[in-house]
Amino acid sequence: MVRKATPPGGVQTAKTLTELAAVAGVSVGTVSKALSNRGYVSAATRERICALADEHGFQINRTAQSLKLGRNDAVAVTLPLGHESAQTFSDPFFIALIGHLADAISAQGSELVLSKISAPTHGWLSNITRSGRVDGILVIGQSDQEAELSRVAVNYRPLVVWGQYRAGQNYCSVGTDNFAGGRMAAQRLIDSGRRRLVFAGMTDIPEIAARRDGFIRACEEAGIAPDGQIETHLTADAAYARLAEAVARDFDADGVVAASDVIAMSAMRALIERGRRVPEDVAVIGYDDVGLAAFTTPPLTTIRQDLKRAAEAMVDLLFRRIANEEAHSLSLPPELVVRASA
Questions:
Q1: Quick one: DSSP state of residue 40?
Q2: Which stretch of DSSP H or E encloses residue 269?
Q3: Could you give the CA distance from residue 232 to residue 86 in angstroms, rounded to a whole number?
Q4: Contact (CB, 8 A) for 136 and 158
Q5: Cα–Cα distance between 158 and 45 in angstroms, integer?
Q6: With 50 as the cut, is the pLDDT of residue 127 above it?
Q7: Strands, sheet with 172-176, edge to edge from the N-terminal-most edge strand
Q8: What are the HTH lacI-type domain coordinates in residue numbering (predicted)?
């Protein structure tokens, strides 16, 4: 049991690091290390100091500590939904990427501060940089916010974006080669004998536009004309409604390249419910390889984005930029994962 102690001067409740150090009979530095879990302090001393802090109701003044250390040990992870305001963090892709980012940020000794910007307005990113509450910012997706990202990147260095690099881009990004992925998906269908191919997804998002362009290139190289494009949102309910409508009306494709696994799973549901067999009548390929992709019926063929590797790369680049080191954009290769749907 920890005995109550009164420091010199008769202070009954320790309110500062100095007072708590006096109560504990150790240096201020030792108290700081013990409570912030940084640096070496023996387990017994750390336990004793933490017990005294609890007894005194003591909390570190994080604002003062941040000013002293020149850092917050926190990273903002933000999701700007300029296109898909209905998307949520429960989207399988976001769950996977945010989980890997959280692990990588924690390994750096920092905390993740998560936010969703449902209707981005001019200056939303600048507001985060000016808050002084984080050491850097990770942005998940470029959406339609390239102008805002470019404007902030001129003066704010610790910024890394999940998204495909574009020539002339002034902000640091990590992404896969979406053109190659779309081309790879279409080529898989072509190699299996499919000739009436359709692309499903909205293409005003840069990454998805690149996937569609790769899809078209593969069709052109094979000498076939794409069977069109089904414009659909990325959320499951919206994608299912749009694809169900298309299948019921004038759908004649024998192969679907979907812009995401969520769209692909919605397509399979719409097809099967309307009497089309997958893959016998229509082959379906998704994009991302989220955790659910291997457990659909049939299991989903897809283009894998290695989100663990991507998250680790994003966090590594961010902390190098925080340390004012050189850190440049990175493009990762996509990978075809063949399962039963195509």
A1: -
A2: helix 261-273
A3: 13
A4: yes
A5: 36
A6: yes
A7: 111-117, 74-80, 136-140, 159-162, 172-176, 330-332
A8: 15-69
Give the CATH H-level superfamily of domain 74-177+307-333: Response regulator (3.40.50.2300)
* DSSP one-letter string for 317-336: HHHHHHTT-----EEEPPEE
Residue with tokens 């002339």: 168
Give the residue-averaged pLDDT of 199-217: 92
What residue ranges do the domains of the chain occupy? Answer: 17-60, 74-177+307-333, 178-304
Q: CATH number of the domain at 178-304, please?
A: 3.40.50.2300
Query: pLDDT tens digits, residue range 53-106?
Result: 878 877 665 545 554 555 668 999 999 886 655 566 678 898 999 999 999 999
The verdict on whether omega for the bond into residue 7 sits within 30 degrees of 0, i.e. cis, is: no
Question: Residue 172 in 3-state DSSP?
Answer: strand
Query: pTM to 2 decimals?
Result: 0.77
Higher pLDDT, 236 or 188: 188
* Ranges of H-type helices in 90-158: 92-107, 124-131, 146-153
Indicate the pairing of strand 255-258 with strand 229-230: unpaired
Residue 285 tokens, joined: 């390929």
CA dihedral 39, 43, 48, 54 (to 10 degrees): 70
pLDDT at 190 over 60: yes
> What is 72-84 written as a DSSP string?
-SEEEEEEE-SS-
- Are 74-177+307-333 and 178-304 the same fold in CATH? yes
pLDDT of residue 3: 43
Residues near 53 by beta carbon (within 8 Å), at least 6 away in sequence: 14, 20, 35, 59
Structure token pair of residue 308:
């663990």
Amino acid (1-letter code) at residue 291: G
